[in-house]
Design brief:
mainly alpha; 2% strand
């Protein structure tokens, strides 16, 4: 027979376990937190801390029959979906940097130059890797990780455990927000990409006027040099676009947290 004190402790541990499911699911899809280089133990500790804070903001109780019931299964499923949606909304804002980097890299002729992205573990263009690292620094600089943690805790008020199912309008808004990746990515890449297209046009005119000119030997170095110079000049402007994209992702996550 379990002593009364330990029985209460066991019930409290189950409540904490339910509370940390949503933050843990959000960290799987969220940028920075969901990166492979972040230790799993750190994610669990942060998820537990946020779950305990959420429990204080919005107390909740376990289903009568425990988790091994239909009500318990639906509660866990709702928590997982809510957490994944919150993290995915912020990840969409981050994906604009990769799209912008891939666009610029292809125009510069660096489409064949790839390196492993530490955030995703996959191969990504070199310019996309640069913009991804810049976006990570900007995300931390504006306190995006703290804002995301606040949004997760506040989501328990509008979406309490057991009733965390998002409305069809919220899901439709998240799907439509996916188009933000293409719009923001092209806007971020526009200053450098448009100038590089002009350089390509000049190289094309040279090739027509001097057919004996080795365009590959002359055009590729010229495009690379122009791209590096333009990147150095346009990074401040592109940083503003990256910050705006991150803020839009956080705003979408806050909208989802509001139900």
């Amino acid at each position: 027979m379990i002593p009364a004190g330990f029985a209460e402790l066991e019930a409290q541990l189950w409540v904490w376990l339910i509370a940390m499911i949503r933050p843990g699911a959000a960290f799987i899809t969220a940028p920075v937190f969901g990166a492979p280089y972040v230790p799993l133990q750190l994610r669990l500790v942060v998820a537990l801390a946020l779950g305990m804070a959420a429990m204080q903001a919005q107390p909740f109780a376990m289903p009568d029959g425990g988790l091994v019931t239909i009500a318990g299964f639906m509660m866990v499923a709702g928590e997982v979906l809510a957490g994944l949606a919150l993290g995915f909304a912020v990840q969409i804002g981050f994906a604009a940097a990769l799209l912008a980097g891939e666009t610029i890299g292809n125009v510069m002729g660096l489409g064949f130059a790839g390196m492993v992205d530490p955030a995703s573990g996959q191969s990504s263009p070199a310019i996309g890797q640069l913009l991804s690292l810049l976006t990570t620094f900007l995300f931390l600089a504006i306190g995006g990780h703290l804002i995301l943690a606040t949004i997760i805790v506040e989501s328990y008020r509008a979406l309490p455990p057991g009733n965390a199912w998002m409305s069809a309008e919220t899901i439709n808004g998240l799907v439509l927000f996916g188009g933000h990746v293409f719009a923001a990515g092209l806007v971020i890449a526009l200053p450098v990409g448009f100038a590089l297209i002009l350089v390509q046009l000049v190289m094309g005119m040279l090739a027509r006027s001097a057919p004996s000119l080795n365009l590959f030997a002359v055009g590729l170095p010229a495009t690379l040099l122009a791209g590096l110079v333009l990147l150095a000049m346009a990074i401040p402007v592109m940083s503003e676009g990256l910050v705006a994209s991150i803020q839009q992702g956080l705003a979408m996550a806050r909208q989802i947290a509001g139900g």
